[in-house]
């Protein structure tokens, strides 16, 4: 019985030290929090001649971007690729929401089933070019047409 009590005390002490160490390391400078997401919302589609005009609400809670180029793929209502576009969203100011408007040429809005943010082709903030910026993107849509990544 004596040995079991010592183990409980030793295990509790070890667990306390592990938690204290984790909290200490979490608070150390250089352990930056992960970058904040840039939220992209497909807000509106409207027919403009033979093109579909798309309105994208861009909410940036974090740092400024001097380059932010999306590789976007438009699918028709049957799921077939209809168009592929490069869309430049920059400049994106810090802690700011903007609306970016772009045309999807020779496409009827009613023919669009979904839009995919395939990648972020070019991404640059004040520290320089950033790799894997697509990981910083979150998507949503106010429409039956989905926006995804």
Number of helical segments with 4 or more residues: 1
Characterize the overall form.
elongated
Mean pLDDT: 85
The total domain count is 2
Could you explain the architecture of this structure?
The chain has 149 residues and is α+β, with helices and mostly antiparallel strands. It has one helix spanning 2-26, and strands spanning 38-48, 51-60, 65-76, 81-88, 96-104, 112-125, 128-129, 137-141, 146-148. The chain has 1 helix and 9 strands, in the order H-E-E-E-E-E-E-E-E-E. Strand 6 (112-125) and strand 7 (128-129) form a beta hairpin. The longest helix is centred in the N-terminal third of the chain and has 25 residues, at 2-26.
Short description:
The chain is an alpha+beta fold. It has one helix at 2-26; strands at 38-48, 51-60, 65-76, 81-88, 96-104, 112-125, 128-129, 137-141, 146-148.
Task: Describe this protein with a few key phrases.
single chain, 149 residues, alpha+beta, Immunoglobulin-like, 2 domains, five-stranded mixed sheet, 1 helix, 9 strands, elongated
Topology:
Elements: H1 2-26, E1 38-48, E2 51-60, E3 65-76, E4 81-88, E5 96-104, E6 112-125, E7 128-129, E8 137-141, E9 146-148
Parallel strand pairs: 1-8, 6-9
Antiparallel strand pairs: 1-2, 2-5, 3-4, 3-6, 6-7
């Amino acid at each position: 019985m004596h040995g079991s009590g010592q183990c409980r005390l030793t295990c509790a002490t070890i667990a306390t030290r592990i938690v204290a160490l984790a909290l200490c390391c979490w608070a150390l400078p250089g352990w930056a929090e992960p970058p904040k997401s840039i939220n992209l919302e497909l807000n509106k589609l409207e027919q403009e001649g033979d093109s579909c005009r798309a309105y994208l609400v861009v909410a940036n809670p974090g740092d400024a971007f001097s380059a932010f180029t999306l590789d976007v793929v438009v699918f028709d209502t049957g799921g077939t690729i209809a168009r592929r576009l490069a869309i430049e969203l920059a400049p994106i100011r810090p802690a700011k929401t903007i609306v970016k408007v772009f045309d999807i040429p020779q496409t009827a809005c009613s023919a669009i089933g979904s839009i995919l943010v395939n990648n972020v082709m070019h991404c640059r903030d004040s520290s320089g070019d950033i790799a894997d910026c697509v990981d910083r993107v979150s998507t949503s849509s106010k429409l039956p047409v989905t926006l995804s990544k």
